[in-house]
């Protein structure tokens, strides 16, 4: 049986979802981006999602990592924080010390409210929400965003997002997540499988609107020595599945994003045994290059979902 508890993560409120019989543990931090800070299955001695050790690391030392945070209303980068929409010019600040661009949207460090929770013998579900009449003068639009996390007895974790335009005018948007996945070992001891697709060509970290075929991961490919910070596009109406495995078969995960997330960013951070697999409705700078850009009309709602199934054989 699952159990949901309200806890503390330092000075921040947190939510813990546990099923001790199945060895499942999920920790959420609504007050800072609604992030997933821990994801364990089958009593695994490590988290399949890399989180933060404490609140100080999250809020003071590495808030810009945005681990497992919601990226909205745009993922990745917005060129120098500038864009135009419906004949008006808007500006967002360069919010990260290492970039001249606006990065990771506006919700990665915002407080979400707990709206609903449910447990039964087979699964647990938590819904968080963020609502604003105008979040920033550079994005002065009214919206409500709900995130629902669901986890079942097998450890299948799904994340559903619902965005509604609650204002009187349309606005541009993109939606994404920023989870860092890990298998309890170095990436040199891991392999990845991903369907053939199109790589989005970048110049100075921004898309050029050019694509090239990519099939390096169509068959299981070792991550040894690979440095990734690449965006890929999947053309079609089918969900995209990505497999991450340990060479000793002790742990693996099966990741899937629905067709409403047609882009994915793969990123391997320095000095960390994790890989970011980021579902995105659009690539970087979509407010300017229009690639995958969504224009949400008043009272319109869009929904997106990704899921991951972690396996541990220990």
Descriptive notes:
4% of the residues lie in helices and 48% in strands. With 314 residues, it is mainly β. The chain has a nine-stranded antiparallel beta sheet, with no helix packed on it. Strands 16-25-24-21-18-19 form a six-stranded antiparallel beta sheet, with no helix packed on it. A hairpin with a 7-residue loop joins strand 24 (263-267) and strand 25.
Unreliable spans are none
Give the overall form. globular
The largest sheet has its strands arranged as: 10-11-12-13-27-23-22-17-20
What is the terminal-to-terminal distance? 22 Å
The secondary-structure class comes to mainly beta
Find the count of extended strands (DSSP E, 2+ residues). 27
Main beta sheet: 9 strands, antiparallel
Helical run tally: 2
DSSP strand (E) fraction?
over 45%
The mean pLDDT is 94
Helix content: under 10%
Order of helices and strands: EEEEHEEEEEEEEEEEEEEEEEEEEEHEE
Q: What's the gyration radius in Å?
A: 19 Å
């Amino acid at each position: 049986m699952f159990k949901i508890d309200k806890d503390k993560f330092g000075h921040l409120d947190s939510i813990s979802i546990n099923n001790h019989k199945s060895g499942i543990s999920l920790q959420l931090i609504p007050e800072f981006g609604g992030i997933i800070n821990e994801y364990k299955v089958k009593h695994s001695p490590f988290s399949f999602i890399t989180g933060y050790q404490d609140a100080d690391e999250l809020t003071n030392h590495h808030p810009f990592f945005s681990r497992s945070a919601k990226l909205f209303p745009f993922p990745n980068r917005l060129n120098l924080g500038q864009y135009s929409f419906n004949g008006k010019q808007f500006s967002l600040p360069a919010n990260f010390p290492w970039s001249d661009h606006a990065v990771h949207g506006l919700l990665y460090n915002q407080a979400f409210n707990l709206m609903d929770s449910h447990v039964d013998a087979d699964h647990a579900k938590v819904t968080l929400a963020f609502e604003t009449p105008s979040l920033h003068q550079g994005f002065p639009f009214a919206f409500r965003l709900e995130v629902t996390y669901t986890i079942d007895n097998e450890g299948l974790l799904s994340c559903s997002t619902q965005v509604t335009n609650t204002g009187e005018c349309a606005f541009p948007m993109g939606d994404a997540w920023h989870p860092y996945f890990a298998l309890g070992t170095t990436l040199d001891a891991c392999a990845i499988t991903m369907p053939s697709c199109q790589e989005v060509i970048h110049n100075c970290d921004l898309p050029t609107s050019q694509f090239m075929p990519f099939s390096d991961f169509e068959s299981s490919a070792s991550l040894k020595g690979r440095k990734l910070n690449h965006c890929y596009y999947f053309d079609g109406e089918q969900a995209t599945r990505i497999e991450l495995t340990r060479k000793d078969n002790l742990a693996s995960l099966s990741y899937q994003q629905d067709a409403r997330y047609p882009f994915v960013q793969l990123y391997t951070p320095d000095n960390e045994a994790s890989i970011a697999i980021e579902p995105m409705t659009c690539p970087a700078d979509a407010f300017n290059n229009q690639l995958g850009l969504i224009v949400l009309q008043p009272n319109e709602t869009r929904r997106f979902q990704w899921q991951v199934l972690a396996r541990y054989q220990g």
